[in-house]
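wait is this the right file?? whatever heres the structure
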């Protein structure tokens, strides 16, 4: 039996806005949280003497992390080298760099020839001799057009057509790998993909334009004893036969992951059988407090009471309250801030509720025209559920608008879609708004 630790979506260096500078170290506390989470995974791999570690992709927020972040990542994984535990690092969408072939942040481990380390940046099969016997790992990194298609092949095709062409190629390429497998040896497919059976938590709001998904039926082949997935941040089993699991991210990236449990997978693998156990990590707690003050006689007191009801120490807190225009003067955010002092960090988001009924997007009347960015801003102002990512959406939209409409990036291609599919949604919104 081969014992495997499967973790994914580390995103080290993300979510700094939810932390603060630790005066003792000079580092952002959220960076320290993410480092601690990774350290716990590696501790566990060493303590339980696993035969292999599989990382499902998305090491950093992008392919060019600052050196101190790269070093913290390397320092933890280096302990696996010392412990003689082979490790496969899969390349996720956040790890890819658009410049140059093999330009992923993780490729440096291959270039340096780190003993026992394999970088999965192509669809290929690796046979690994572990101390408990051989294992076959088929690596499937994040798919982009250029992974399996050439430029002339995609010329003039719609995004949907490119997607289905990509899936056809994937089917063929995967079949090629499957035919080369040794049927006697336990086999794992390690893939950074969005499967059609995956469920999102709070991100379901983002399903405006569906991102590029791979049908589970293409991946769920009997030759695989386990499918180790990465990309979706919510832990879930997406297929039982063969067993396919997203361990999810190891720390919360933002409020969309508020209610999700965080952890990694411990796996016992033999040919034809995989037993997985989800191991929790003590991720930092994110807490949204929502208060409706519009009917309250003493809004300030009601708000204070809501804030003081729970012990918020060490939590990342988001206070959202609704109030009427005539109540604005009565609420003192400084006092509320003092009451939130104990929290690790906090944001206060007052929402003014108009007493008059109004159309959903009053600014978008039939006879008025708006520039795309102001139209998007109006749209976002009316979508409270998107408020956490509104700045990112606006930035992404501005990026899209800045691009040469006849250039290479005129179409939002699969590789440019964010992990939450939000960029595609933005692309759709922007295009629709342009038509207004
Ligand atoms: Mn990803």
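ok assuming it is, sequence goes like this
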């Amino acid at each position: 039996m081969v014992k495997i630790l499967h973790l994914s979506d580390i995103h080290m260096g993300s979510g700094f806005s939810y932390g603060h500078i630790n005066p003792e170290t000079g580092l952002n506390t959220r960076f320290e949280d993410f480092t601690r989470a990774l350290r716990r995974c590696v501790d566990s791999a060493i303590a339980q003497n696993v035969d292999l570690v599989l990382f499902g992709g998305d090491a950093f927020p992008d392919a060019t992390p600052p050196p101190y972040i790269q070093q913290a990542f390397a320092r933890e994984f280096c302990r696996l080298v010392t412990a003689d535990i082979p490790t496969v690092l899969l390349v996720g969408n956040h790890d890819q760099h658009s410049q140059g072939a093999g330009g992923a942040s993780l490729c440096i481990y291959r270039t340096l020839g780190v003993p026992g380390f394999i970088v999965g940046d192509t669809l290929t099969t690796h046979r690994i001799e572990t101390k408990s016997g051989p294992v076959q790992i088929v690596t499937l990194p994040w798919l982009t057009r250029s992974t399996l298609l050439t430029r002339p092949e995609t010329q003039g095709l719609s995004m949907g057509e490119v997607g289905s062409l990509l899936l056809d190629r994937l089917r063929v390429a995967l079949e090629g790998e499957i035919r080369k497998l040794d049927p006697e040896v336990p086999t794992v497919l390690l893939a950074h993909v969005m499967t059609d059976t995956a469920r999102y938590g709070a991100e379901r709001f983002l399903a405006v334009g569906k991102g590029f998904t791979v049908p589970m039926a293409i991946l769920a082949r009997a030759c695989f004893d386990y499918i180790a997935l990465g990309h979706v941040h919510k832990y879930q089993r997406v297929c039982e036969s063969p067993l396919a699991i997203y361990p999810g991210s190891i720390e919360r990236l933002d409020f969309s992951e508020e209610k999700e449990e965080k952890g990694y997978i411990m796996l016992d693998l033999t040919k034809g059988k995989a037993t997985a156990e989800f191991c929790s990590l003590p991720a930092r707690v994110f807490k949204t407090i929502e208060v409706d003050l519009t009917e309250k006689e003493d809004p300030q007191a009601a708000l204070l009471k809501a804030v003081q009801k729970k012990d918020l120490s060490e939590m990342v807190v988001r206070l959202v309250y609704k109030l009427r225009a005539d109540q604005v003067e009565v609420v003192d955010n400084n006092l509320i801030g003092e009451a939130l002092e104990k929290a690790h960090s906090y944001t206060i988001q007052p929402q003014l509720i108009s007493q008059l009924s109004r159309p959903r997007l009053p600014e978008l009347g039939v006879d008025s025209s708006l520039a795309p960015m102001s139209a998007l801003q109006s749209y976002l102002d009316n979508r409270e559920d998107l408020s956490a990512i509104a700045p990112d959406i606006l930035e992404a939209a501005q990026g899209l608008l800045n691009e040469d409409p006849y250039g290479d990036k005129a179409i939002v291609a699969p590789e440019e879609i964010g992990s939450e599919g939000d960029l595609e949604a933005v692309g759709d919104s922007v295009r629709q708004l342009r038509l207004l």
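DSSP finds twelve helices and 15 strands in the chain. so i think its the right one actually
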